[in-house]
Amino acid sequence: MAKLSQDDLLAQFEEMTLIELSEFVKAFEEKFDVTAAAAVAVAGPAGPGAAAEVVEEQDEFDVILEGAGDKKIQVIKVVRELTSLGLKEAKDLVDGTPKPVLEKVAKEAAEKAAESLKAAGASVTVK
């Protein structure tokens, strides 16, 4: 296996979700018998940069459809408007709640999508 450069590793970490990154850190700690707290203490000046990266990750939100409510057809129409899903796929998504409708979107887009779904009678969670 080819050795990855530091830039290659950072590019891979950028693509990971916070949960995946957290799981990686735990596996790394177990494999090498170290703790992340020691690494942060050694890299003191990098601490504020790492905090800024965490803030950037929080700019992405998921819109999760919890239930269709009484107006299922209206909710399916809104799901189709928000996504590029066909009728069958949108219906399957609505029938299989709770399911994410949009993932990793900006806060404004997530709030707008949630408002549209709520207006159609759905129950929605933004995470």
Please explain how this structure is put together:
17% of the residues are buried. This protein has helices spanning 6-15, 18-32, 36-42, 47-57, 72-82, 87-95, 107-119; strands at 61-67, 99-105, 123-126. Helix 5 (72-82) packs across helix 6 (87-95). It starts with 5 loop residues before the first helix and ends with a strand. It is an alpha+beta fold. A three-stranded antiparallel β-sheet has the order 2-1-3, with helices on one face.
Which descriptors apply to this entry?
127 residues, alpha+beta, 14% strand
The average pLDDT score comes to 80
Task: For the largest sheet, list the strands in their spatial order.
Answer: 2-1-3
Oligomer: single chain
Task: Spell the H/E element sequence.
Answer: HHHHEHHEHE
Q: How many helical elements? A: 7
The termini sit apart by 37 Å
Shape: elongated
Q: Classify the secondary structure makeup into a structural class.
A: alpha+beta
How helix-rich are the residues, as a percent range? 55-70%
- Low-confidence sequence ranges: 38-44
Strand content: 5-15%
Number of strands: 3
What's the alpha carbon Rg, rounded to whole Å? 20 Å
Report the major sheet. 3 strands, antiparallel
Task: Summarize the topology.
Layout: H1 6-15, H2 18-32, H3 36-42, H4 47-57, E1 61-67, H5 72-82, H6 87-95, E2 99-105, H7 107-119, E3 123-126
Antiparallel strand pairs: 1-2, 1-3
Helix pairs in contact: 5-6
Q: Summary?
A:
With 127 residues, the chain is an alpha+beta fold.
